Amino acid sequence: MISLSLHAADNDSLQWQKKEHSQFTLYFTAADSSIIFLMEKDLENGRRSVTGFFQTTFKKKFEVYIFPNREELNQQWRKDWSMPGFNSECWMVASGVAHRLDILSPLCWKKDACDHNAGDSIEVQKIITHELVHVFHAQHNPKPTFDGMDDLSWLVEGLATAVSGQLNERRINSVKSQLKEGKVPTALSQLWTGADKYGRAGCFVEFIEQQYGLNKLIELLSLTDLPSILKALNSNETSLINRWKNKMLE
């Protein structure tokens, strides 16, 4: 059932239409009514991919907002992140935390975004799945908005990259090339730096899953600092990075 409502608590400049699903509530404006069927399909496919990978469910229902233009999305992020002067980079089209997923409408990517192709249905699906991984992760973490976890961005983003299918051959080969050239991180926080940060972090999370197993990776979802992660993996940064490098270059 679709109902027209004003959701002033989130963005009082938009008239939101609401559609309830068993696992999420979708909010959108009239400008995006033509793509709602496709967005619902991508959300359901992404949700199934995430729960299928982790073999467990989302802990609670969440909200999904489709913003009709970048300025409206920026206003929401300024409020959520307590950054009044924030203006998002053009490549930023979505975000996800425990209670909600925000996405810039693909209908305006050509005008309001860069490095993304709204005409590529596979790319759109992977972006939505990526954000759903964030929602899932945040729901299984004591910090539902990842507040104070910047040092673990490599885990948060690497997990979403790997599970969503965004860790493609191009990204993997780029990481391998860097490692062959001796460009090896000396700390795990350095995984999430530079132009290849998604590939580097994704490769590292995939390494953890392959070496330690899915159950151990799921255990890491509830941790909020590096010492706890190293303890769970019974290792240290130098050893983990060297093992990862050697595995990548086999």
CATH class of the largest domain: Alpha Beta
Please mark out the parts with pLDDT under 50 across 5 or more consecutive residues, or reply none. Answer: 1-9
Mean pLDDT: 94
Series of H and E elements: EEEHEHEEHHHHHHHH
Query: What name is given to the CATH topology of the largest domain?
Result: Zincin-like
The coarse overall form would be globular
Number of strands: 6
**Radius of gyration of CA atoms, rounded to a whole number:** 19 Å
Structural class: alpha/beta
Percent helix, as a range, is: 40-55%
Neighbour order of strands in the largest sheet: 1-2-3-4-6-5
Count of helices? 10
How much of the polypeptide forms β-strand, as a percent range? Answer: 5-15%
Profile the largest sheet. 6 strands, mixed
Number of domains: 2
**End-to-end span in angstroms?**
54 Å
Output the keywords.
250 residues, alpha/beta, Zincin-like, 2 domains, 6-stranded mixed beta sheet, 6 strands, 48% helix, 11% strand, disordered N terminus
Layout of strands and helices, then pairs:
Blueprint lengths: L1 E4 L10 E5 L3 E5 L7 H19 L7 E6 L2 H11 L13 E3 L3 E5 L4 H4 L8 H19 L13 H12 L4 H12 L16 H16 L1 H7 L5 H8 L3 H12 L2
Parallel strand pairs: 3-4, 4-6
Antiparallel strand pairs: 1-2, 2-3, 5-6
Helix pairs in contact: 1-4, 4-5, 5-7, 6-7, 7-8, 7-10
